[in-house]
Design brief:
By secondary structure, the protein is of the alpha+beta class. It is built from four helices and five strands. Strands 1-2-3-4-5 form a five-stranded mixed β-sheet. The radius of gyration is 16 Å and the shape is globular. The protein binds coenzyme A (COA).
């Protein structure tokens, strides 16, 4: 791993929203290119994501985090309190909804710093578990999450109907 000394991870501010949305677009396109069965952004997806991120920034139990290198936002993570499905017992669980590091800044420990900051946030909130989803074909991300102590517990199944 390369030097990570110049990376700062901090809470996102409103002025980071353009960079966050650009990284979200990168994340969605990366997944759709990996497997065309995965979600594609809606026409107003960037606007909707911006609003959602802004809402999370004002929600104490959520955290939108950015990683900066030399004053440039190069990664973000969106962490949310989890909700049990209807009729299931609530658990003190956090959900990492999105993490993305800009392509030119990967494999330098930025993603790890973001994930660790999201986990620290959940611990501060009294949460005792964390959950996330990763695409089956995203082998690098699966290794990334495994290196952070995550284990797969669910398969998400798909079949086309036409
Ligand atoms: C997955 C992602 C967030 C990882 O961020 P990163 O900054 O590149 O990862 P780091 O440099 O912090 O790596 C942390 C660990 O994961 C491992 N890792 C990261 N990417 C990996 C890859 N593509 N293949 C194998 N291992 C990988 C590293 O080896 C490292 O392990 P170590 O600490 O034991 O050396 C980043 O590659 C990314 O944004 N990918 C595209 C979007 C995406 O897939 N997001 C996650 C969706 S679930």
């Amino acid at each position: 791993m390369l030097d990570t000394g110049s990376v700062t991870v901090r809470r996102a501010r409103q002025e980071d929203l353009d960079a966050i949305v650009a990284l979200w677009v990168e994340l969605v396109e990366y997944h759709h290119n990996l497997d065309c069965r995965l979600w594609e952004a809606a026409e107003d997806g960037t606007l909707t994501y911006r609003e959602w991120a802004l809402e999370s920034m004002g929600e104490p139990r959520a955290a939108v985090l950015v990683a900066e290198v030399d004053g440039e936002v190069v990664g973000f993570a969106h962490a949310l309190p989890g909700r049990a499905p209807a009729s299931m017992r609530e658990r003190a669980m956090g959900v990492i909804a999105d993490v993305c590091v800009a392509p030119g800044h990967r494999n330098r420990g930025v993603g790890r710093r973001l994930a660790e900051a999201a986990i620290s946030h959940f611990v501060e909130q009294g949460m005792t578990e964390v959950m996330l989803s990763a695409a089956v074909g995203n082998e690098g991300a699966v290794r990334f999450w495994r290196s952070l102590g995550f284990d797969p517990i669910l398969y998400s199944m798909h079949r086309p109907l036409a």
